[in-house]
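User: quick one, sequence for these tokens?
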């Protein structure tokens, strides 16, 4: 017999409005490490995050009698593979992006919980970023239509934006139109390629350029958010005999490796790093506030509090299909971080977005040029 879920079950979710779609929320539990064995007083097997039946819920063990069960779209256990995580969370999103939708996958969780492993991985176990790009390139190669693929890779560190594909360009500014839409990073390089090898090199170079600061918690702890953006434009002739009239579908896929969500005090941050911790908390705090507001159905959501939420505005409440992968260690030594992450992911369960195909009729622009040509001809005739 199942104990009633404390939260997160389908019945406790608010209804989804017509045309809207729920955020997909996945949880990935990383394998226990050798140095996490032997420290637990109350949890079985040194673990306090345990995958439950049907791989859709986790039990978070607390001290006697304070267990909680959380339900998600999918829970990946310690044995899950990179292929499986990609196939379940991102492969259909890639197809949607090729059809003109916007998509976002973001990895959330404390430092050391496995975010970079999932998003970037290593050459032997490539993560979501590499697999998604591979699938996009393959689809583009196999299709006879006209496609263009561009990518950019940026770091948000200490509330400052750097171009990971061109780190020497310094700090970049966010720009948006007067209605607060169409957010852009001014001066960010957009690289056009369909070569997997070239992309691997670019991503590796970009990852090396990420700001890493050692903390007491994890020697290679990254205090930075990394955002990979891939834009796919697909031009379809409206009329096969008229190549000046094209319909262009444009999809954008954001793949985000967030900074660690742990509290600053746990990592014994001091001085400079404390300030950075504060800024990371500011961005993640703002993200948390947005998630709270969205999951509570608030009419007003404040995206303006941090650069991260300004960049993620569409992904969270707007025109985007969004997947969140929350990462936890099974170790009871990480119990506070795991609990915070599960509570956060549980709230995200209630968020819905409304995705639409981004399509524009290019003949409109061409016709404008045709008008100019006609006017010029008339002018010449008058001479
Ligand atoms: P984060 O980016 O969240 O700080 P990492 O992805 O760097 O965490 O993971 C911390 C360590 O644990 C790394 O050595 C990583 O290779 C390992 N690790 C994380 N997740 C897994 C997993 N699912 N399988 C195997 N090793 C993992
Ligand atoms: Mg990382």
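Assistant:
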């Amino acid at each position: 017999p199942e104990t009633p879920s404390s939260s997160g079950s389908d019945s406790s979710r608010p209804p989804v409005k017509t045309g809207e779609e729920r955020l997909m929320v996945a949880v990935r539990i990383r394998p226990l490490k050798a140095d996490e064995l032997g420290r637990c007083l109350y949890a079985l097997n040194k673990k306090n995050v345990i995958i439950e039946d049907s791989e859709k819920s986790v039990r978070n063990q607390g001290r006697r009698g304070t267990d909680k069960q959380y339900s998600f779209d999918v829970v990946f256990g310690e044995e899950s593979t990179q292929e499986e995580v990609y196939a379940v969370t991102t492969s259909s999103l890639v197809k949607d992006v090729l059809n003109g939708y916007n998509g976002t996958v973001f990895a959330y969780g404390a430092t050391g919980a496995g975010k970079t492993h999932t998003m970037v991985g290593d050459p032997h176990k490539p993560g979501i970023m590499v697999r998604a790009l591979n699938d996009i390139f393959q689809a583009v190669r196999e299709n006879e239509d006209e496609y263009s693929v561009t990518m950019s890779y940026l770091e948000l560190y200490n509330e400052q934006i750097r171009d990971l594909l061109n780190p020497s360009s310094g700090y970049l500014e966010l720009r948006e139109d007067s209605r607060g839409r169409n957010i852009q990073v001014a001066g960010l390089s957009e690289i056009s390629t369909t070569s997997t090898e070239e992309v691997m090199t670019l991503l590796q170079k970009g990852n090396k350029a990420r700001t890493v600061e050692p903390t007491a918690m994890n020697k290679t702890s990254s205090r930075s958010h990394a955002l990979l953006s891939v834009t796919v434009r697909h031009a379809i002739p409206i009329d096969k005999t008229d190549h000046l009239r094209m319909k262009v579908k444009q999809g954008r896929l954001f793949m985000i490796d967030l900074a660690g969500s742990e509290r600053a005090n746990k990592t014994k941050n001091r001085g400079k790093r404390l300030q950075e911790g504060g800024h990371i908390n500011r961005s993640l705090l703002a993200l948390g506030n947005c998630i709270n507001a969205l999951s509570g159905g608030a009419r007003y959501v404040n995206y303006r509090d941090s650069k991260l939420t300004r960049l993620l505005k569409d992904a969270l409440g707007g025109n985007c299909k969004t997947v969140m992968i929350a990462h936890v260690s099974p170790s009871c030594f990480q119990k506070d971080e795991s609990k915070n992450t599960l509570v956060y992911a549980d709230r995200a369960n209630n968020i819905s977005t409304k995705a639409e195909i981004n399509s524009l009729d290019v003949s409109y622009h061409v016709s404008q040029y045709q008008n100019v040509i006609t006017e010029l001809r008339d002018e010449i005739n008058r001479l």
